[in-house]
Amino acid sequence: MKMRFAILALISFLFYIKSEGQGKILNPVKWRFEIEKVSGNDYKLKYIAKVDKGWTVYSQYTADDGPVPTSINYDEISGIELIGKTTESGSKKEGMDPFFGVNVIKFTADKPFVIEQKIKVINASKPIVGYVNFMACDNEKCLPPTDAEFTLRIPPDGAAPITTENIAEPVKSVVQDGKVIPDPSTPDTSGVAQAATTDFKYGAVINGNKIDQRVEALLNTYKNPISACGGTEEKKEGLFWTFIFGFIGGLLALLTPCVFPMLPITVSFFTKDTHRKGWVNGLLYGVSIIVIYVLIGLLITIFVGPEALNRLSTNWIANTLFFVIFIAFAFSFFGFYEITLPSSWSTGSDRLADKGGLIGIFFMAFTLALVSFSCTGPIIGTAIVQAATKGEYLGPFLVMLGFSTALALPFGLFAAFPAWLNTLPKSGSWMNSVKVVLGFLELALAFKFLSVADMTNGWGILKYELFMGLWVLIFAGMALYLFGFIKFPHDSPLKKLSVTRIGFGALSVALVVYLISGFRINEKTGDYRALSLMSGLAPPAHYNFFLDVQEVDPIIKAKYPSFSKCANNINCFKDYFEGMTYAKETGKPVMLDFTGYGCVNCRKTEEHIWVDDRIRNILNDSLVLISLYVDDDKKLSSVYISEHGGKKLRNVGNKWADFQIVNFEQNSQPLYVMASNDQKVITSPRPFAEGVESYLDFLKCSLQNSKNQN
Description:
Layout: H1 2-13, E1 29-39, E2 42-51, E3 56-58, E4 71-76, E5 80-89, E6 92-96, E7 103-107, E8 113-121, E9 128-134, E10 136-137, E11 146-152, E12 162-166, E13 205-207, E14 210-212, H2 216-223, H3 233-254, H4 262-270, H5 275-304, H6 306-311, H7 316-334, H8 343-353, H9 357-371, H10 373-387, H11 394-416, H12 429-457, H13 464-482, H14 499-516, H15 554-559, E15 564-566, E16 570-572, H16 576-586, E17 590-595, H17 600-608, H18 613-622, E18 624-629, E19 635-642, E20 648-651, H19 652-664, E21 671-675, E22 686-687, H20 692-709
Parallel strand pairs: 14-19, 17-18
Antiparallel strand pairs: 1-2, 1-12, 2-8, 3-7, 3-10, 4-9, 5-8, 6-7, 9-11, 13-14, 15-16, 17-21, 19-20, 21-22
Helix pairs in contact: 1-5, 3-10, 3-11, 4-11, 5-9, 5-11, 7-12, 8-9, 10-11, 12-13, 13-14, 18-20
């Protein structure tokens, strides 16, 4: 069944382009509520969730420090008495979550998720009023916690069970600016209401417990922005570079001693017959290599699980494991031992290859994959882990397609033009040097994984200085090796330095000098000058041992309580109304950053894009950054009801999720919106897309159009 699914997936991907579903409101969980009599005054409440395929919800009893557990909350239960704890049923899965780093209990779409609560009725005339709070996640994102409200009444004796429906749609209200109505309670820094003594230009309209957040200017210009900047073209480019990344990996694998000597041997076998037959057999051999490696990539993804692969980038357990594995790979490349598959596998495959014909050619290719594993395995593992975040199967498919194409192309070309074999360099000690260099690269990459684990789990052991220092030592070691000062077990005596070896040695020295330059202090920010080539590899420059933690401007902080430091020591507001008021005072445009503490792609943007000096300077100096966390569970001073959607807003996350939906008709994060300080959307909002340069273009174009409007 697994093999059948992999083949179907392979065929499907030849015609399929993944869609992110941006620009729409997601509603993957529908709830219904039932009450039925058990006996006497004993009844049973049922909370039943129908979950869309690919999504999950979390048990009431999952870890509190992971995803938001489902919870049943009662506003009115004076007519009943709860008996015992709730029970849960459905398609249950339990285990370590790769992203949240804790053991979780979740329920999938295979069966309805049912929560049951036994009750004893004291007064049947009083209704049971409350709400279910829950979080829904798929393989790539989590939606902000959502409420599904219910009102249940005890059915008369003999009546059928009473059922009510609540599809738990995200809030449909829209947002408008208006005069702040003073809140007599403690000032609420979340921005729902501001103290009467604070002279803010913008604020939500509050009438009793109703809140109207409609910003007509935002809503209207979101649909028709001032300029045409923005868009998500970078996503397609990112997929293209996934293929190129795999192709480069295939070229590196081709130069290793496990693969390179196979070229003349294999091609000579195919050219024994007529030229035409040798050409055709070589082509079939190349196609077989592509099919085998693509299937390997898809099967790894299937057995490990796309959800796990997609979330490996931030999970500390997975990244610590990868650190250990890549250290092992590195020392294998250095020649201290060899990692191989069982010899019986390659022997059996080799026997099948002797049969000839199409089957024989296919198993010749399969034998190549098996015997070359000690060289290709680490490269394949690196490629799949890095590419898995491009989509459940699309990323691994593309990276393995690129890898296998680079590996197969020489076999097909040399079979078609066997005279070219004479132009190949002879096998020799240079191939072991290629393996050792790859070992240094694997060693450096291992510390990248350990760095992610360190930051995610808050260990504080591999901060910026130590990480950069280790990379300096690793590439200094590579330079010493290439210049002949260091030798490894399988190295031949080095009589003379080749031009190629000198060139790569000089490149290693230049890289060491470049890495050392990363210890310069940026006088403006007080942080180290982060290097552009290390974006996404090294820890953020502000995550360090020796430099003082930066403080925000105390004058601004005194006036605007939400003013703080966000990722990479960038000044930001965590309240829309405060940030917009400050932007009006300073005459700057704003960037709304709809984010979340549990948002994987938000962290990727901050760690891989915002660390770039050019982008960080724009975010700090040229605009006002407003980061709105849709999963912030800090309670509001009062429970508000959306004027238009009727939803209860109990915490800060509820409010900002509502704000995003009603203004921009989306509820997935991250979402980046450039707006003027008079609340007009300048460019098309940008969802998650990789690439520093495209993000920089988005900011520059937005700023230029903002100036044109002034």
